[in-house]
């Protein structure tokens, strides 16, 4: 099953991708994580990407798609993949679709008001980067479970900046959603519900699609 998860920051798509990966035994592929790995390993593609990032420019779509296709052709992704954080541009979407089209694209919709509230409540470990959510239990914590680092609110997570991030996201994603809708692969999911309920909505659609294929 080839799946793409799209959602604004704070929609929980990373958590959902992780869950689906375990449930269906297919890899969760995050383009951001792929790039970080390549940069760390100092591969050719990693060095190319880094040179753009250092200049404050976006990595060209062709490089992003090449890296992603390479990952998807590995053995563990032969039965399918779950993409998170891709595509970000129409060009990426079309280049990718030409090679390995997704069967289902889930758009996890969360209204901006709720996104801002969710993100403003989250904190990050200043040492290892682990993210802490907004549950009461997590809010009481002052230090990271994993490394004892101090928990802080990231500058990026403050409401005015989140609002700006959401505006950019909306601009980027509108033509992409329109196109996937035309391809009849887009499913809208109510992302205001709990992690468990959102997961149940997604798996219900996956089961229906799997049955139709038989
Ligand atoms: Zn930590």
CATH class label: Alpha Beta
Order of helices and strands: EHEHHHEHEHEEHEHEH
Shape: globular
Structural class designation = alpha/beta
Distance between the termini: 13 Å
Average pLDDT figure: 91
Query: What multimeric state do the chains show?
Result: single chain
CATH superfamily: P-loop containing nucleotide triphosphate hydrolases
Q: Can you count the beta strands?
A: 8
> What about the largest sheet?
5 strands, parallel
Q: Compute the gyration radius: what is it?
A: 18 Å
- Strands of the widest sheet, in order across it, are 2-3-1-4-8
Task: Report the bound ligands by name, code or SMILES.
Answer: zinc ion
Helix content: 40-55%
> What ranges have pLDDT less than 50 throughout 5 or more consecutive residues?
none
Beta-strand share of residues: 5-15%
Number of helices: 9
CATH topology: Rossmann fold
């Amino acid at each position: 099953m080839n799946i793409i998860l799209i959602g604004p920051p704070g929609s929980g798509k990373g958590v959902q991708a992780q869950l689906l990966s375990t449930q269906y035994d297919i890899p969760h592929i995050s383009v951001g994580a792929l790039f970080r790995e390549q940069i760390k390993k100092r591969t050719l593609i990693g060095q190319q990407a880094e040179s753009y990032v250092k200049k404050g420019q976006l990595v060209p779509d062709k490089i992003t798609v090449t890296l992603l296709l390479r990952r998807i052709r590995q053995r563990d992704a032969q039965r399918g993949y779950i993409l998170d954080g891709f595509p970000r541009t129409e060009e990426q979407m079309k280049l990718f679709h030409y090679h390995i089209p997704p069967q289902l694209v889930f758009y996890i919709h969360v209204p901006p008001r709720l996104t801002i509230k969710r993100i403003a409540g989250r904190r990050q470990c200043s040492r290892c980067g682990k993210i802490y959510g907004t549950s009461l239990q997590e809010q009481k914590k002052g230090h990271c479970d994993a490394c004892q680092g101090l928990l802080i609110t990231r500058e990026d997570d403050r409401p005015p900046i989140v609002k700006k991030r959401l505006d950019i996201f909306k601009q980027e994603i509108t033509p992409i959603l329109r196109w996937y809708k035309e391809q009849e692969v887009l499913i809208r999911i109510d992302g205001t519900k709990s992690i468990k309920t959102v997961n149940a909505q997604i798996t219900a659609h996956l089961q229906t699609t799997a049955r139709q294929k038989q």
